Amino acid sequence: MDAELIAMQLFSGIALGAILIMVALGLSIIFGMLGVVNFAHGALFMVGAYAGLWVASRTGSFWWGLLVAPIAIGLFGILIERVLIRPLYGRSVDDPLLLTFGLGYVLVEAVRIVFGSDGIPFQTPPELSGVADLGIGFFPVYRLFVVGVVAIVLVLLWLGLEKTKFGLIVRAGAKDPQIMRVLGVDIAKVWLLVFGLGVGLTALGGVLAAPMRNVNPEMGALVLAEAFVVTVIGGMGSLLGAVVAGLLVGVAISMTALVAPEMATIVMFALMAAVLLVRPQGLFGKKSRA
Amino acid sequence: MTQGFSPTSTRRGTLAGIAAGAATLAMPRIARAQSEIIRIGFPTPLTGPFAAEAKDQVKSAELAVKQINDKGGVAGRKVELLVRDDKLNAGEAATRTLELIEKDKVHAIVGALSSAVQLAVNEVTRARGVIYVSISQSDTINEVKDFSRFTFHEALNPHMTTAAVAKHTFKKGSKIAYLVADYAYGHEMLRGFKRAQEALGATSVGEILHPFGAADYSTFMPRLRSMRPDILCICNFGRDQANAIKQAVDFGMNRQARIVVPVLLHNQRLAIGPEAFDGVVGGANYYWGLEDTIPSAKAFNDAFKAAHDGAYPTDYGAYGYTGVYSLLLAMQKAGGTETDKVIAALEELKYDVAKGPQHYRKCDHQSVQSVLVLESKKKGEMKNPADLFKVLATEPASEDILRTCKELGFPA
Amino acid sequence: MTASTSSLPAAARAPRSPWRARLTAWRVPLSILALCLLPWLLPSQALAVNVLIYGLLAVGYNLLFGYTGLLSFGHAAFFGAGAYVTGIAIGQFGLPWFAAMLLGVAFGGALAFLVGLLSIRTRGIYFSMVTLALSQLVYYTALQASSWTGGENGLRGFTVSTINVFGWAIDILDPVKKYYVLMVFAAAALWFVSRVLNSPFGAVIEAVRENETRARACGYDVERTKLLSFTLSGVIGALAGTLFALHLAIVPLDILSIHTSGMVVMMTLLGGAGSFFGPFVGALAFLLMEDVVSLWTSHWQIVVGTVFILFVLFLPKGIWGTALAALAGRGGR
């Protein structure tokens, strides 16, 4: 096996990890702040992809879809938090999980009703199609673009959390919502925005993934399982953990694909089980969170 | 750029069919008599990823029933189709089949759209001595272990399709790379292709098994590329196939190799679009374009179009038609629904209802029939939205492309 | 119900309403009576058998989720293990049906013990995730081990058409006879679960659910309690699996999928987590809803999902739990 092939494989793994990061990050932000495990996250990824497709077909431009869909679905996320999740605060931690589990069913079926159950083609935008020569081999331009977009989003997110007042409140709120309330911060409003942000991120992941995988109503199910694995490995609620674990899982899948391709799916669950046994709170997780 | 699309609404026709099925549940049970309606149970995955194919199956099966009824039915008795949603789940399918047999007292079952579902229905009907016409692809159902004398396999099997596709795409010295879904159906397709490859003097440059149901195939592409094949053979089905082809094209694989698949699906090609499928070659049981050469295909297309606002019948839909039609023809010959007589009639039956001559081979009850080798058309070549494929070749109906009865484990 | 009442021994926390007390004392015979009537009340016997099997699975799950407070997302593993081992034992080793069932239950129980051992080390959400991951591992293992399990095609070739009970041959292809044969096992399991809940152990698991720290402070071995509850729950699930195998005479790979696990959670919650007969009511409601709704629209999932959301929001005690509370005229469970 030559070095170029391994380098290419590594690169495929990183590109694969980029999408995982987008989804896992949203899941992790919502959990870290609200303590809610969002089982509808995969369905919202799928809804994001359909929204992107719809906007793109209406405007004739992929770029509008990429910009508008995540914002629109993020607003939809805010609505979900306000109407469905908020009544559950103060009840068992399992309740929001169960509710979003049901919500996932509803969203998938709603998309089937509106767009049909067959799936719809989503062509790679022409300016991003084709392959680029990386020196070690050829790689689709679009996948390079995805890695770039995710990197930019990560930088923006980091700046937003570290350098703004809102970021400060979010970070503090994740540590101790009680104190924030005492300090006079309207924590409910922060939670609303955080939920919207998390949903917007997964919707962005959906739009980005659509030209690679086409869109169909079931596309969220597999992604949800992958995102859970990533967040659990990284530590639920840890943003750094989501990023590191996303890359780790992407690379683990691609390296397994090289040596034992039929094991490429099973490897991530094995990895997750192994991490949890050694470090139950995940690589970057805080022990107290349950 | 994205392709234009329009939201599709639910198909009322199918729902009406299901509602009709529901209505029969409420009817008082009539004693079995000569005048009794002949009930055919039809489990099919109305929900799930193959819902479009399933709905086409229902439409085509209903058309067959209607045509028979219009001509006076079977021995003076009317025929009725009881459609049930098997949700593409073998357990659900087995339950629905039990219901059809135990409660609705059906006279036969036709249907299924996955290997697992068909084997489950086969198991239930075998234990209870109910005739079953299977319309889903599988090699396993031909083998002696799963053989049921009550079961007839109307669909193609992977061995046939791969033999036909290989014959018209593989050449002496071709270098072939395989990307194979890691489950029984994938393995069956690989086995068929490799057997043909050997006979044709082509060579394999590598095989990669991928997990069943994977969404991303990018991690397999660098290795496939490094194998430098002339032909990339993608042995999977449905969404797996669509995603694998699309991503192979993204990685530029179609520029160095021809992409070949065992089965090209009409609805899958519609869902993914002409760009990704450009030049892809694969097998099929039916394509409406057959009407230029085969009169029965023309008649089927015309009847289907008349019943469904000009829509064309599709591959898996045609199975619903040929499967139900052959069963009803045999019942007509047998003069009713008596199981042994119908089995004997099916074994003797020669039929040509949509795609040229067909008959069920006696040992394994496999329908001997033609296999089409199709190539996906470019957007510019399409004369109408349903004009998806060129017929490259038609492999005639012959037992030569089947495994022999002996090989399947039947006594010679 | 507050933590202090539930950590008292079983006898002391007998329901206050005489109605409830009588219902609780007679819960096993009443449940069995209801199950006896089931095939005659539902549209088909096949549906009745499914309610029986999934109801039993949910009863086992309820022991863990409803009574011990552990939200597992991997119960498909034990259900599937019971079914697969029964089918393999009959089909490949030619074991008699009863021995195959015993083996299925034992194997499912052992698997539950193992998964429990690993997963109870984690808490809260992590527990749900670990059970999910481990059950996915079981799913993929079954997919890969196709020479044993039939892989994606499912396990076949073990149809049992007649069974002998003390020289009495019963044709279990007959749907009614089959139902009552399977019901005997479900009834025995219900009696067993009732005994467990009435025992001191039953009080301890509820104490763990209400307040783990307090239970620990009271000197209970919380880990052992959880593990035992997990294993028992898996044993009941595996028993349901063996009944599934006898009923359908196939084991589809889907039995191990996350959808099965999710369905059990939904059934338990719809019926009423933490109530004795609730899971059966939940299984009945879920399957009936699916059966009826899917006859008039192929979009039955949107109805099921919406109903489930409404239950989480407004009726967290489920159908049975709410009915019991209404009967008692007070908020207690």
UniProtKB/TrEMBL annotation, chain A:
Its main location: membrane. InterPro entries: ABC_transp_permease, BCAA_transport_permease. One of its GO terms (cellular component) is plasma membrane. Keywords: Amino-acid transport, Cell membrane, Membrane, Transmembrane, Transmembrane helix, Transport. The chain crosses the membrane at residues 6-29, 36-56, 62-85, 97-115, 135-161, 190-210, 222-251, 258-278. PANTHER family: ABC TRANSPORTER ATP-BINDING PROTEIN, BRANCHED-CHAIN AMINO ACID TRANSPORT SYSTEM PERMEASE PROTEIN LIVH. Belongs to the binding-protein-dependent transport system permease family. LivHM subfamily. This is Amino acid/amide ABC transporter membrane protein 1 (HAAT family).
From TrEMBL, chain B:
InterPro entries: BCAA_transport, Leu-bd, Leu_Ile_Val-bd, Peripla_BP_I, TAT_signal. It holds the Pfam family Peripla_BP_6. The keyword Magnesium does not apply. GO terms for biological process: amino acid transport. Gene3D superfamilies: 3.40.50.2300. Residues 38-380 form the Leucine-binding protein domain. Keywords: Amino-acid transport, Signal, Transport. The keyword Signal applies. PANTHER family: LEUCINE-SPECIFIC-BINDING PROTEIN, PERIPLASMIC BINDING PROTEIN OF ABC TRANSPORTER FOR NATURAL AMINO ACIDS. Belongs to the leucine-binding protein family. This is Amino acid/amide ABC transporter substrate-binding protein (HAAT family). It comes from Enterovirga rhinocerotis.
Automatic annotation (TrEMBL), chain C:
Pfam families: BPD_transp_2. Keywords: Cell membrane, Membrane, Transmembrane, Transmembrane helix. The keyword Membrane applies. It is a multi-pass membrane protein. Its main location: membrane. The chain crosses the membrane at residues 23-41, 47-64, 71-91, 97-118, 125-143, 180-197, 230-251, 263-288, 300-327. One of its GO terms (cellular component) is plasma membrane. It is found in: Cell membrane. GO terms for molecular function: branched-chain amino acid transmembrane transporter activity. PANTHER family: ABC TRANSPORTER ATP-BINDING PROTEIN (PTHR30482:SF17), HIGH-AFFINITY BRANCHED-CHAIN AMINO ACID TRANSPORT SYSTEM PERMEASE (PTHR30482). This is Amino acid/amide ABC transporter membrane protein 2 (HAAT family). It comes from Enterovirga rhinocerotis.
